[in-house]
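Researcher: Next entry in the queue.
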Amino acid sequence: MASPRPTARTLSRSDTLGFVLFVIGGVTIAAAVIVQTVLSLGPALRNDGVRLHAPFVETVVDAPIGPSGAGVPVQLDAAVLFAPELQPPAQTALVLSHLLFAAVVLTVVALLLALCFGILRGRIFRRRHTGYVVTAGIVAIIGMYGVPFLQNMAVNGALARISDYTFDRAVVGTVDVLPIFAVAFLAALAGTVFGVGDRLQRDTEGLV
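Model: Structure for this entry, 208 residues:
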């Protein structure tokens, strides 16, 4: 009769150090995001002197790069707008974009830290850990789509306000879908790996 074996695995010192550094990095990122969000929400809530990064499509402007500073037509791809104030819908979208960004980053960091603490306790594959990985991926995808979408709404509102509704720009989505697909693929892969590992571990334990 085989003697029962422990289900936990002892981590090496280097593994433990790596997880500890990961935890420290996660806490640092969370603190930085909180500070950044507070600083960004100030102008957005006051609605005074809002600074926005605006993408442009097929927009030609004159740049003073010719002889003696003469204007030369160039295509503008992006610019920083300083809006004196935003309309309520645009202001709301800007505030929500900052809050969503903070919520997404803090949630992902919290889930990954919970995963690290679970692994540090000696067991890598658990159903709970699979849930952490999959949920972190889903939340990250929501943020990667939602934050640029809300920011684009704020930019459109700022351009309309600045131009008194006379500037007609080609409105396109500013969401880059390729990174979203990459994150979705990695989250699905990690979830599959953790799920299969948990099942194999439980099957092995049942044979011992």
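Model: DSSP finds four helices and two strands in the chain.
Researcher: Noted, moving on.
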